[in-house]
Amino acid sequence: MTTPSATAPTGLSTSLSRLWRPNTLALGWRRTILEARMFSRDPSALVFTLFFPLIMMGLFSTVFGDEASIGDPNRPESLLRPAEYYLPGMIALGTILSGFQNLSGYVADERFNGSIKRLAGTPLPSLSYFLGKTGLTLLLITTQTALLLLGARFLFGVTMPATVDAWLTFIWLLLGSTAAWSAVGIAFACLARTGQGASTMSAVPPLLLAFISGVYFPFSQMPDWLRTIADFFPLRWTASGMRSVFLPEGWAAVEPGGTWNLGLAALVIAVWLVAGLVLTRTVFRWPPQK
Hints:
The protein has 290 residues and is mostly helical. It has one domain (22-66, 75-283). It has twelve helices and no strands. It has helices at residues 11-19, 22-40, 43-64, 82-112, 115-120, 126-154, 164-191, 195-201, 204-212, 224-230, 234-246, 262-283. The longest helix has 31 residues, at 82-112.
């Protein structure tokens, strides 16, 4: 009588077991360094990616002036300068630009220029490839946000949060939202039919969502049906969460329901992260070698 052999893990458990293999993690780290070196060879893309949110905030400050003019005129103590008001939105915008637009464009280009096919012929695990892409994205969003915060503080005089809780909220929002958009961006790139099509179409969601998610305009001023649409996407919740970090507590009254609702923000971001990972796991395949 023989003892039945244990069945090998399948599906998500297989992916998780592969993720924690030391070789997979080490190769992912090496791939991150390589990705960063390759990206740095394009100075124009590097400068534009890192400084775009700071440029946008500077543009808003120039157009709307440096006077405390945003808020309730009947409560002068609540009024904010444009740089103070737009900083949270610019940070949130960076997560979708770096995580979705940029990353999906890179992956799509490598799908159609033969790079991924060449990598398929190497021992590099697909998880290490995606760890490298995600590592590059986290490196870019961290550097981009650091530059934005430094510019806001020293060029525009924006006061930074003074509590540990505020900075912890800032960190999980920034990393969680970027990770969610990265997973969705990779899945989007895997579904694209052409590299040019992916690059073009990946610019549409950030553009539309930025206008309805409280990045450029107060979220409370959006029509109800647009706010309902925005509620389904992480950018709206990231922007609201970042406002809870950088704006005075009294500004929570302007949010829907009169609260920042960070718990729901965490839930929406987590759902998109898991959905993006599952979709990427489903649609991505190394191309066959001929």
